[in-house]
Amino acid sequence: MPSAFEKYGKVNVPRYTSYPTAPHFSAHFAASDYREWLGGLDPNEPISLYLHVPFCKQQCWYCGCNMKLAARYSPVATYVQHLLCEIDLVADALPAPMPVSHLHFGGGTPTVLEPEDLAAVMARLGERFQLTPGAEIAIESDPRTLADTMIQQIGALGFNRASFGVQEFDPKVQAAINRIQPPEMVERAISGLRASGVPNVNFDLIYGLPHQTAEALCRTVEQCVAMQPDRIALFGYAHVPWVAKNQRMIADESLPTAPERAEQARAAAATLVNNGYIPIGIDHFARPQDSLAIAAAEGRLHRNFQGYTSDAARTLIGIGATSIGRTPQGYVQNASETGAWSRAVAAGKLPIARGHALTGQDQLRSLVIERIMCDGKVDLAAAGRDLGLAEAWYAEEIPELLQMQQDGLLTYEGGKLALAAEGLPLARIVASVFDTYLRDSTARHSVAV
């Protein structure tokens, strides 16, 4: 008889970095509604900012992100000018220069910018917003293309967290995903950043890659641990060649089987825990003194479009093509195509392509899903009570939960749900029980493990 892990691990479900998830945002959403949401924010309540830079200097075949190859710098320079314009458009819609508790540059590869352009963006943000004392200022980077001048600039600008996509150090796997970066290259980059004053470093690892084995991945984990990153994210490779055409370069037959993927995830997680990292949610690990581990221990863990976070801000403003934002009223997403985004910004318009206004039920289910994903448990009655809704909004007998309880994934009694140890890696499956949009959805998602 298959284990619960084998039974549920192959189910395709969203990653639940929002609820409802992005495929359910409407293209008929009016940018004027977003402008109204921004104007109604409390000027004293800290917000978060996310800036998206969709350019990379090299194409990785596993990547599913919205990115563009930067063969020349001129398109990047033009993008920077429009990024500055959008910062002004958003700031003009706000009631005041808002305090910012978290600032994150993602991509793509934000360090594809010239150092002076990164400085210009930071200067504009400093003019239009107020970074709070102790604000987290983070940037994603590619060690293959990170120049010493950029390393020095990142430190000089006050960034205090840098993230690297390590993925896997095994040479055969690196060749299969078109990302050649030996450990020495990564170590040089993080040593330079730490020397420049950046105290915190994150690594991303991926299991389920072509030709990957549990043994090779565990060797990679040990090599990473020796570099002492503060956080390590362990993601499952999402093979979606119908979305990301570059993934067609990866042969289906080179991918691990479902049981092999599960073993890779289990073995890598065990290696991280044995090396002193604290498991966070379904796919993050942190050193005990890291703010993410502290937030998890104190029940303050949250989840947004960057994954698990200690960021408690209710408003996240996305700037740049394809970026997603959130206010207490709902979600918005900018135009994904850089040309359409640029034209809207140049015309003085907020470049919103899609959005979703949250209903009371959305807010309730969002809270429940986030607690399942973050804490592995939730009190359904208390969730309704906290939002001023009926405590008895849920059914005492939910067939899917009762089956999962029978399979050993969780306990469910009196409206209180708690995942068992075997169920924690499958939190996405449990969360999906409360996703009313998923039932009629035609969107295709990655496997749970």
- Work out the strand percent: 15-25%
Helical content stands at 25-40%
Structural classification: alpha/beta
CATH architecture assignment of the largest domain: Alpha-Beta Horseshoe
What is the tally of helical segments?
Answer: 15
Query: In this structure, how is the largest beta sheet organized?
Result: 9 strands, mixed
Structure explained in plain terms:
Strand 7, helix 8 and strand 8 (231-236) form a beta-alpha-beta unit. Helix 3 (74-93) crosses helix 11 (338-346), helix 5 (148-156) runs parallel beside helix 7 (183-195) and helix 8 runs parallel beside helix 9. 36% of the residues lie in helices and 21% in strands. The protein folds into two domains: 15-324, tm_1862 like domain (pyruvate-formate lyase- activating enzyme, Alpha-Beta Horseshoe); 359-437, Arc Repressor Mutant, subunit A, CATH 1.10.10. The strands form five sheets. The protein has a nine-stranded mixed sheet, with helices on both faces. The protein has a three-stranded antiparallel sheet with strand order 14-15-16, covered by helices on one side. The radius of gyration is 21 Å and the shape is globular. The model has no long low-confidence stretch (mean pLDDT 94). By secondary structure, it is an alpha/beta fold.
